[in-house]
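Title: [Solved] Glycosyl hydrolase 3D structure

Original question kept below for reference.
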Amino acid sequence: MKRIAIIMLLASTFFGFSQQKSKTPTKIFSTKDRLISVYTSADSTNLRLSKTDILAFSDLTQPLETQICVFVNPNKTFQTFLGIGGAITDASAEVFAKLPSNKQQEFLDAYFSKDKGIGYSLIRTNINSCDFSSESYTYIQEGDKELKTFTIDRDRKYKIPLIKKAIATAGGKLNLFVSPWSPPAFMKDNKNMLKGGKLLPEFYQSWANYYVKFINSYQKEEIPVWGLTIQNEPMAKQIWESCIFTADEERDFLKKYLGPTLKKSGLGDKKITVWDHNRDLISQRASTILEDAEANKYVWGIGFHWYENWSGGEPMFNNVGKVHEMYPDKNLLFTEGCVEKFDAKKLQLWANGERYGRSMINDFNNGTVGWTDWNILLDENGGPNHVGNFCFAPIHGNTKTGELIYTPSYYFMGHFSKFIGKNAKRISSVASRSQLLTTSFLNQDGKVVTVVMSQSDKKIIYNLCIGTKYTEISILPHAIQTVVF
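Solution (posted by the thread starter after getting help):
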């Protein structure tokens, strides 16, 4: 008996080793036979997503402290990339409708074509009106708790046609998520869609049903809805459409009403994103909701904006990373950002684009899976906006001349969205000096995309180092580069 047991033990040990041996080894990235393409946009030049170099790798000796380096390690992978995009608001759709047909096509290609443009793959749109609407509105008659009068007829004039054209230009591959700014006035304690106020408890179920009505109505228009956020900026009392949810209130609305209602309605696959506000309070909101098991099960991710610097402080990029450390199983999604306070004299201000580059690099390095700009198009005045809250967009359309104005922000976003593919993996990317910011991704086709942004007033020569290989690259002052190999 003892002999049989020993034989069985030896056999199982051998089988175990055989299983380990049969495992496919992790594929190690190799630079062999790879050429390096460099694309550059730079301040005070005509370079805009321009191919500026084709380089090759050489053997790397020990880098010196006097050399500036970017170290990329494709064997160390992190989050999976979802996409980059912007918001099709009422304002964007109304401006688009005023453009000549040839400029409309140029605009669609510029954003949603990978070949002719920068290949957006994410879109956000508003449920009910927001500040970037020409007026306040809802989809029901005031007082209709049962939602019997619900209709999206007004969206069929501008928003729905543009969203459909965007999806078609992108080859049907856009992920659309939807966000409310305010419930109808009668559902709130201040009886006003504007200036904050709270959703009254007796309307929690009715408001949950509202999301279902909206999503179903859009999907009947053959516009798939990928996901939703619960409330835009739930801690902001704005002069435009707004509604306050404390962390406890958002948690309870999600777990008792919205989550179960979506599931019961056959919409349980929709990706629910909580918070949808600035980086400053993101940790408290995430902890309150995600540490409740019933609420947690409905949450796909945590959304955030970049406006926390209204207080005069710096952007709180590290807060995003802290949330990622605490809840690595949840997705982080940048849901809105724009340059505020429109001024036509600053349409080509390079610093506006640099704000995008700095945020995108830091947000991705802190675990973010996707990045969504605010309005994709505004007019020559930074609107329309029914409360005068005029802002910048990456592209402005002059409704008087029909001209499209491409701002630096468009090109900065393009350095990411044009080259990083869906389901790419972020990989390790580290700069040796603070003059350079960097992030890198490994696409599914095996190509590496490294973005390098210079914050320096001087031209810099840096070494791009991968294992035992490197290449020397020159970057102009205040430039952004995408390096593909």
